[in-house]
Design goal:
This protein is an alpha/beta fold and 328 residues long. Helix content is 51%, strand content 19%. The protein is elongated. Belongs to the bacterial solute-binding protein 2 family.
Length: 328
């Protein structure tokens, strides 16, 4: 490794260390509980209806909002809810938790359909055993799930593409960081983004890499991409921590010419938009997804028929909107 690469690597580590330390401290109290859940060592007695929300990654800011919406709705609807998920993003662990929920004979399951081929058979297994399933955030459309609640991810990707066009004027090289190469929602967003970019001959996506829903990985992948493609003028991220990770790489490489757009409204992202460091972000409604999912289960338990799809809205937030929010 050259001296320059060593310096870049060290700078990346230092820039993110403080951020990760704070986040680790805030989440560490949850780890033992999650480990106990994964080992099956915690047993809880539930009265009445008992449903399970299986998250992609417990402690992740996005899924904390989903969980908050679900738990508050469950309290209002007098439903017991158990929120579980891998400590780190792990599809195999999610499948194990889904199997555990089936074995526990819960009254309902809320889960992502991250990979239709992998999740559909297990979702169908639950339904065939009399356990209704709702998919959230990412659908498994060929499964026997009752309904999907979440973003229209293709349209959300198109909204991200429109930000790129407005920012670049329709010309330039684009780098993309997606949350996962296996999550259908991420691939749908990429598809929507490409559909807009392809309408402009002057725009080109030169590289696409996955962060695996990891801040550190987003930083490293963005840094590698910018060094490999120094002619990139704008980078976009399609999951919650990607844009902020891109920003850390941009700062470490002193590439102030790079424009950035992202997904979701983490506080770090919003603060960067206020400073003019990130152009805009496409915002989903994770709280609303969790809330709506539980309310739909409540309706189902009351004998009501559910719509097969419930899209939650998305919006674009930029600096002008944040300034307007602060105005008297």
């Amino acid at each position: 490794m050259t001296d320059k690469k060593w310096l870049v690597s060290i700078a990346l580590i230092i820039s993110v260390f403080g951020f990760l330390l704070i986040r680790f401290a805030s989440e560490s109290s949850k780890i033992q509980y999650i480990v106990d859940e994964l080992k099956g060592e915690k047993e809880q007695a539930f009265k009445g209806r008992h449903i399970v929300l299986i998250e992609q990654e417990q402690g992740h800011p996005y899924w904390q909002l989903v969980e908050k919406g679900a738990t508050e709705a469950a309290q209002a609807d007098h439903i017991a809810i158990e929120c579980i998920g891998p400590v780190r993003n792990n599809m195999e662990e999610q499948i194990k938790l889904l199997e555990k929920a089936i074995a526990s004979k819960v009254d309902g399951i809320i889960v992502q359909g991250l990979n239709d081929n992998i999740f559909t058979p297990v979702i169908n297994k639950a339904v065939e055993r009399g356990i209704p399933v709702l998919t959230i955030d990412t659908d498994a459309p060929t499964s026997k799930r009752l309904a999907y609640i979440g973003t229209d991810n293709v349209e959300a990707g198109r909204r991200l593409g429109q930000i790129v066009v407005q920012t670049t004027g329709g010309t330039g090289k684009i780098g993309v960081i997606i949350g996962s190469e296996s999550a259908e929602s991420q691939l749908q967003r990429l598809s929507g983004l490409r559909s807009v970019i392809d309408e402009y001959k002057g725009l080109q996506i030169v590289d696409v890499r996955a962060s695996n829903i990891s801040m550190m990985e987003a930083i490293q992948q963005a840094a590698d991409m910018l060094q490999l493609h120094p002619d990139i003028g704008m980078m976009v991220g399609t999951s919650a921590t990607d844009a902020f990770g891109i920003l850390q790489a941009q700062k470490s490489l002193k590439r102030d010419d790079i424009r950035i757009a992202g997904f979701d409204d983490l506080q770090e992202t919003l603060d960067a938009i206020r400073k003019g460091e990130i152009e805009a972000t496409v915002v989903q409604q994770p709280y609303g997804m969790g809330e709506m999912s539980v309310h739909l289960f409540h309706d189902y338990f009351q004998g009501r028929t559910l719509p097969s799809t419930q899209f939650t809205k998305v919006e674009v937030i930029d600096k002008s909107q944040l300034k307007a929010e602060r105005s008297p």
